[in-house]
Amino acid sequence: MKAKFSGSAQKWELLDESGHVPAEPSCTELLQHATVAQDLSREVLRLTAEFAASPHSTNRAGRATLAHLATASTLSAHATSHFAETAETALGLPRPSSPTDPYYLKNRMVIDHATARAYLRRTSQALRDAAKELDDHLDFHRFFRAPSHRESPVPPPPKQSGRHR
Prior knowledge:
The protein is mainly α. It has 4 helices and no strands.
């Protein structure tokens, strides 16, 4: 899931090769960005809710993992809304009422789209941090694994000598 967010942030670009907003940005493509971001956000929220309901969320590492997942849920939701705002702005481009409107609208589009991509990157980082927290916890448990039935946690008591006091 972390890779999906990171990959989307990298490949969804608004600007053309020259660094400018296209004369007519594809509203369909921008709405698709919002749709996919919403689907990803829903997956993160579902994962967060499932982890919160699990018994694993009750220990220190579980609470830290849950905090990272909650952050990822919030960030991914923000990405969705910014992508939707980008598409909404693109739909308003053909109808400027003053000469400065197109510049303002294009700048707003660029800022919203860049902000949405930044939220996707930060979501990916939060998911990475959650996975790292779990990995560290599992490594800790592997290091201090519970003794098996063959291994006794307490040494056997010393044998009694034949003498009594």
